[in-house]
Amino acid sequence: MSKEEKKVNRRDFLFTASYTIGAVGVGAVIWPMIDQMNPDKAQQALATTEVDISSIEPGKSITVLWRGKPIFIKKRTPEEIAEARAVKLDDLPDPQKDEDRVKEGKDEWLVMLGVCTHLGCVPLKDKGEFNGWFCPCHGSHYDVSGRIRKGPAPTNMEIPKFEFVDSNTIKIG
Prior knowledge:
Number of domains: 2
Number of strands: 10
CATH class of the largest domain: Mainly Beta
Helix content: 25-40%
Number of helices: 3
Strand order of the largest sheet: 5-6-7-8
Largest sheet: 4 strands, antiparallel
Radius of gyration: 27 Å
Shape: elongated
CATH superfamily of the largest domain: Rieske [2Fe-2S] iron-sulphur domain
Mean pLDDT: 88
CATH architecture of the largest domain: 3-layer Sandwich
CATH topology of the largest domain: Rieske Iron-sulfur Protein
């Protein structure tokens, strides 16, 4: 091997080593920035939550926290269900049937994210013009099915993924 060939091989090795060290350094700097976008470990632990609903009386509701957000769980009376189903879809800014917002066969149970869809405030229960929820921050009115009826909110309150574990327990998430 000539002296010149040794220099080329040594130069190639130095370039490869430099690029490798540089790539590892860039990865070490960038990884914390990417990792910080993951949910907080406390939030991940709350990926699902089970709620005992056995003590909720008809017409009453409770608020529970799931992933740091309020969840409204309401046991509706037959009158409230009939009122929600009597609304014409043409009268709703975000048309959605009441039947599509509850689980089949469990029409009395309304489970929804308790956050106003306008700017994320928490509406007050049993308030407003439609026997449902009212957001005092900007005046959004929701009916007994959590559908927007009046005000600046663009959509209905969101229905999270949930299921009935048994007749007394709801699993959210």
